[in-house]
User: Fold this.
Amino acid sequence: MEECKRCLLHDVAEEDTLKSIKERIDKLPEQEKAGKELYSKRLNECKNCDNLISGVCMKCGCYVEFRAAFKKQNCPNTKDRKW
Ligand code: SF4
Assistant:
């Protein structure tokens, strides 16, 4: 995969990884999931962040499309938390 700054997996067409993440999100209990609006707001913040490289947050090493799906998670950048 080529490195792509400010790209989600969705943007870099990593379909297998994205599919696996979506399946894992689907299995989460509803009460643990971020709502659609919150999820999309979080991902928009990530897409404007220099720490996002090819779907991975350089602050925590997570796929943001997975991390953002958890209601209780937050942006790991303690100096400039985006969500
Ligand atoms: S630092 Fe925060 S806003 Fe930036 S990519 Fe990571 S989770 Fe997203």
